[in-house]
Amino acid sequence: SDHMENICGYLMKYTNLVTGWQYRFFVLNNDAGLLEYFVNEQSRHLKPRGTLQLAGAVISPSDEDSHTFTVNAASGEQYKLRATDAKERQHWVSRLQICTQHHTEAIGKNNPPLKSRSFSLASQGSANSPGVQRRPSQNAVSFFNVGHHRLPTGKRVPIMQPDHLVDVREMMSQAEGQQRDLIRSIECLPVSGHLTSLDQDLLMLKATSMATMNCLNDCFHILQLQHASQQKGSLPAGTAISWLEPKISLANHFKNGAAQNFPAEINKPASVREEQSIAEPCQLTREPEEINPDEELEDICDDKEDDLGAVEEQRSVILHLLSQLKLGMDLTRVVLPTFILEKRSLLEMYADFMSHPDLFIAITNGTTPEERMIRFVEYYLTSFHEGRKGAIAKKPYNPIIGETFHCSWRMPKSDVAADVGSNFSVHSPSEQVTLSKDIEGQTELDYYTVKFVAEQVSHHPPVSGFYAECVERKMCVNAHVWTKSKFLGMSIGVTMIGEGLLSLLEHGEEYTFSLPCAYARSILTVPWVELGGKVNINCAKTGYSASINFHTKPFYGGKLHRVTGEVKQNMTNTVVCRVQGEWNSVLEFTYSNGETKYVDLTKLSVTRKRVRPLEKQGPFESRRLWQHVTESLRDGDIDKATEHKRALEERQRNEERLRAETETPWCTKYFLKEGDGWVYHKPLWKTGSAAQTQQTDTN
């Protein structure tokens, strides 16, 4: 109690990947056991922007540096904070830990243990509240359904193998799901009555369940390290881990250089054997590869995803899958049935968002910062329609770690708008074909080239990085996206966590942006896609920003696929452009001068991307990697597609298990980790600056 002092001061608080770190004024209220924060010290007399209950919280200094620490509340909320130096961090951490311990112990002393009480969560809440249905006699122990098993005496516990660790991880995932359900059930209780969400015993239950899960995670990590240390030495130090083929000699398999001849398995198709082995020497290296756009040909692949027959035929499979899912369940590790897959990888889907390169290049042609921001918003909103293939909600392939996708677009310079008043170019299908043919005969000076590369940089969590550039116009975009899927009952939600950065080097401007959430609705009948959530686009240099809302359809009435937004100058708070409409149909742009422009997205010309033929692609490139799955889906052979898909996924699991055992990190090919994000290894803002410096030195 001698050290229970109220302290206050400025700390940096991490908000999200878009906003990043922000200075906030924090106050530790020891008497109430609260950590509060305000926008600044002057607003301290106002209502706090945020408050955390410290009873049952966990205060953890971060390993990433000497300044950062986290406050994990019993409710599951987390503050990631950063002090100015290590000394200040230690001061805050020690005071927070003392306050936390004091209030946690106070709850335990002042209240009887939970086991002496029996109550019903369902009887206190609404009958319609999800996740609160339980029998009156069910107490906290039976709610978790915990079983205790004794080992036979005299028997030695065997050393856990990787498969057992995987099983443990799955059981822990289930326990984490149950713990989240418990917290949700408690928070659904009324704030007044016989049993409330603020009941001291329930607060203690929330705190101890959170602490238990944290402890279990720490123990599991120790088991992993112990097993890895026991297995150390099974491979030479410094071995480069690539795709694992269990039936070949590891010593030969991991040699870079000459291709290896692998024994064939007679009982498997040749295509499956190819997926489970590596015969190409170029796959044994992670060196970046320069793709020559001249080797790429206009894409003739046109896979439409409007076939509803498979969904109707496979309803029993969907029902079986739904029976195993729970509300809010993370679907990252759930294997979904093959028939709901699109015939393309997620990496290629990101490329399809660039199908209007004329609008992308036209951004930098804006003569003022206002025009350039408006052009970016126009391009951004027109990208989602072509990114989705057809009306049915199907899922792209989950990229394999290390998978890449390359393509490019060639755009005649005459088709790129020179001023913001220009209308979007609209061509009929016959005109578009003529354009494509003309491009082949044009000289290099007559068109712009936009190059695109994407890579799956992480498996857990699943993170993709993609990068596009137009060297002639000195502009590029870099983004990383973590797709997080959750089961929501009769729909599936996908959160696109990440950040994009558009760089216009000619103007020295950078635009940060995020992506909306996606939802697959009506998954038991005819599934369809809608977008939802608020996204922001910001340019710090010019002070212009855009706020865009993707509206989900209300339960009764309302339009589908509605989007609204506005562009404003932050310094004057002046709105310079408003937009409304549907992101897959017609958009209406209203400018500050009173002019209005309508864009029919269904009539916008689409520039086909250019890709290398399969025989020239590397074995890690999306189309070659998934070619047998794609061919089987085109033929309607779901069983065969599932077999090929399983072979790829099993190969990835084997390789991931071996990396964990040998403590060998995965090495990416094109993207480097910087902070919380991923950046292309040779972005234009680096290579362009280097070239300019070299030219200056020469002069």
From TrEMBL:
Which keywords are on file for this protein?
Acetylation, Endosome, Golgi apparatus, Lipid transport, Lipid-binding, Membrane, Phosphoprotein, Transport
Gene Ontology process terms (BP) = lipid transport
Q: Where is the composition biased (Polar residues)?
A: 117-136
Q: Which domain of life is it from?
A: Eukaryota
Q: Which residues form the PH domain?
A: 4-101
Show the catalytic activity.
Answer: a 1,2-diacyl-sn-glycero-3-phospho-(1D-myo-inositol 4-phosphate)(out) + a 1,2-diacyl-sn-glycero-3-phospho-L-serine(in) = a 1,2-diacyl-sn-glycero-3-phospho-(1D-myo-inositol 4-phosphate)(in) + a 1,2-diacyl-sn-glycero-3-phospho-L-serine(out)
Q: Which InterPro entries match?
A: OSBP_sf, Oxysterol-bd, Oxysterol-bd_CS, PH-like_dom_sf, PH_domain
Q: Offer a single GO CC term for the protein.
A: Golgi apparatus
- Main location (coarse class): Golgi
List locations, semicolon-separated. Golgi apparatus, trans-Golgi network membrane; Late endosome membrane
What are the start and end residues of every segment in region (Disordered)? 104-136, 637-658
Q: What single Pfam family name could you report for this chain, choosing any that match?
A: Oxysterol_BP
Gene Ontology MF terms in the entry = sterol binding
Its assembly, as annotated, is: Heterodimer with OSBPL9.
Described function? Plays a role in regulating ADIPOQ and FABP4 levels in differentiating adipocytes and is also involved in regulation of adipocyte triglyceride storage. Weakly binds 25-hydroxycholesterol. Interacts with OSBPL9 to function as lipid transfer proteins.
Q: Which family does it belong to?
A: Belongs to the OSBP family.
The molecule here is called Oxysterol-binding protein
Say which species the protein is native to: Leptosomus discolor (Madagascar cuckoo roller)
